[in-house]
Amino acid sequence: MFSKETYIQRRAALRNRLSSGIVLFLGNIDNPINFKDNCYPFRQDSTFLYYFGLSVPFIAAIIDLDEDKSIVFGDELSIDDIVWMGQQETLQAKCAKSGVAQTSPSGSLSTFIQKAIDSKRTIHFLPPYQSSSKIRLSELLQVPVSNLKPSVSLIKAVVAQRSIKEPQEITEIEKALQVATEMHLLAMRLGNIGTKEYEIVNAMQHYAGDHNCSFAYPPIVTRHGEILHNHHYHNTFGKGDMVLNDSGVETSLGYASDLTRTFPADTTFTPLQRDMYQIVLDSFESSRNLLQPGVSFKSIHLHATEILVQGLKDIGLMRGNVADAVAAHAHSLFFQCGLGHMMGLDVHDMEDLGEQYVGYTDENPKDTTTFGIKSLRLGKELEAGYVLTIEPGIYIIPELIDIWQAENKLAEFINYDKLKEFRHFGGIRIEDNFLITPEGYRLLGPELIKSVEDIENYKQAYA
Amino acid sequence: MFSKETYIQRRAALRNRLSSGIVLFLGNIDNPINFKDNCYPFRQDSTFLYYFGLSVPFIAAIIDLDEDKSIVFGDELSIDDIVWMGQQETLQAKCAKSGVAQTSPSGSLSTFIQKAIDSKRTIHFLPPYQSSSKIRLSELLQVPVSNLKPSVSLIKAVVAQRSIKEPQEITEIEKALQVATEMHLLAMRLGNIGTKEYEIVNAMQHYAGDHNCSFAYPPIVTRHGEILHNHHYHNTFGKGDMVLNDSGVETSLGYASDLTRTFPADTTFTPLQRDMYQIVLDSFESSRNLLQPGVSFKSIHLHATEILVQGLKDIGLMRGNVADAVAAHAHSLFFQCGLGHMMGLDVHDMEDLGEQYVGYTDENPKDTTTFGIKSLRLGKELEAGYVLTIEPGIYIIPELIDIWQAENKLAEFINYDKLKEFRHFGGIRIEDNFLITPEGYRLLGPELIKSVEDIENYKQAYA
Ligand SMILES: [Mn+2]
Ligand SMILES: [Mn+2]
Predict the structure, then answer these.
(1) How much of chain A, in percent, has pLDDT values that exceed 70?
(2) A393-408 burial: b if 16+ Cβ within 10 Å, else e
């Protein structure tokens, strides 16, 4: 946990952003895998961690905006629990570290909420994403699950606060990046011809675990870099394959890292891979250089896209005017997703609160329908204190090419003939994490090698 | 998956045990960790795996008892999904492998159930343990979550069927045991003075993962063997410590293994540890020898307990008549839990269906109140085809001793003075998995060393 003052100040800042009523936070539960007592590793809700720091299952908390007090609802261990699980710090002692003086049994929350309902007080809550929270909210508020109405003013207040990272949060993120960077180097040493995808995943998990971290998300480790969400790891890397490794860890306090590297299973890229890699790297570096407060991330995304299109033009896969191609979304045959996203206590920070609120504004809302741009999680103007990823890529997806080619879609920008040679090329992505500073940006964590030369030298050194 | 015929026959056998109506099975979903698209590893519900073999999230199935047909409800991938996740086998093709000819979109399940409700057909379902299933059942059946009434006849039919393991299920369990056995040997080699608990856990996970398995449950790896459910791994093993390792894996089809060994971090046990270990081993071997059809597991549990009490008497921690001590539950100061449990697709097999139905009978119901015996998950007469664990132990729990001693509880059987010397002794458990055969029993999986001599020799060989 951070200091007691941290949590007290964060809650005070939240109160200042809201008018009146009660804010209700539900913590996460121990989620059953295949029966009640066989559970997944516990992960507290990130907003709960942010305001209370308590990594304890089955608790809830309220902030009373009118009476300026916080209460945590949860049960102390019974003697049966102590016999089974050993003596532990009491919930009350844990809460004291969060600056919460008052705890109350779980069962008393419904009475508390009932009183608030009776006195017609506003009860603010965030959108629930775990089913257990949906049920509990439904029961507490006496509203069907499908009719729960999260508080937009609360969402906006939390997003405003969590978006600007404190120095101690940056330190945690950089801890996560320290471990993730070493983990990626390990993967580069292991990811050779004959290696299985899962061998890299398991070795990374082992490394992260031994360094007091866990995966921040299911890693993507694949010879099919064009598959954006690949969570099966049964392929073997062969000669000519690239390894795409998108993986990051979170610290014990819950702060994430999110890095991607693409490297040859062999000790060198093929000439074609090198050309394509350089296009992605150019796009990465050029867009990174634009990071600064006041610039919209959407404009940086579009810039990154133009660099990709120019590169694809240079090698003959695209043609025509670059700006026109981007305006027509022709690039989305090769770059289907967004340039990056916020990162913090969640790898896609605050995604549970809604991308519209996290990444966009009422004045410039998210485009939720156009293929490509609808996957851009962050579009709004940057502010100092934001932490985000930059992750351009090129993905050659046979199924998508077939669909586009069947209707000769945007053929003025796409050379479908040439594309045949690339059908099984795969995909490339490069991703780092940055802090927006008053002056511009700062790379978070150690530098992880990413030039063609550095990667080939590293592979050769460990061959 | 097993053969198509396997699933067809299992569903036919279930139909034969039930009269009429519809059986509704909900599969598990991808469970969110901290936001909707960041999920825990998917694990299908075990009963769903048993009857359909489909390890696919967000599907459901019905067996129509009257019309003799099965339908799986789920959605095929959209082109967006294929772009994001790659081309995959269709749900229809997967269902064909399960002998299910008819699939229907997820959305049509509510119409199907509504029709069944309108025609007053019985809708059988099992007790939901994941919150997502509770919500879905509540919405489908239009009943509040707290009023859902699972079908006892269905529970009994499923338990009767799943309790008797098929030869191919035994083969899977033995695959899990093959991997778990090697994993335990790895832990013995690693578990030395100076090792951290988590280093063993992470190395075991790495080994299991590289052998196409995953943990069947959060492992217990601890220098505090007396803590029965210890899932924090931050201690370092010191001189004089024992390592208690209770861990098992499940295969890709979902079949579990569940082994426990206790060994010295040093290369030898202390004399006191050796004596206590031998008591547990004697209890283990003596109770194992009683395994055979027709014998109640409760009687074997009581026999194992008597052997423990005799041993504790021999070293001076208990006193008085052994049978009287057991009848008075005096042993439960040292052995607070049950001798074993069923194992199969779940490590505690079918625990979601209710211990009363899995481990007991209407005639001999479970004792749910007496400390000690209330934790015995299996009490009923054994049948050929059962797979179960035997896992006696001795646990010296300071908090429990203090409570008992404060009231001088059962002092005629317990030597509280002598017990002072043992206050920080810790705990010992030994656990293997067995199949009940017509003749008696068979140890499943390879023999994993467990005598004092074998363990010390192994530790010395790798020191
Ligand atoms: Mn990312
Ligand atoms: Mn067990």
Answers:
(1) 100
(2) bbbbbbebbeebbeee
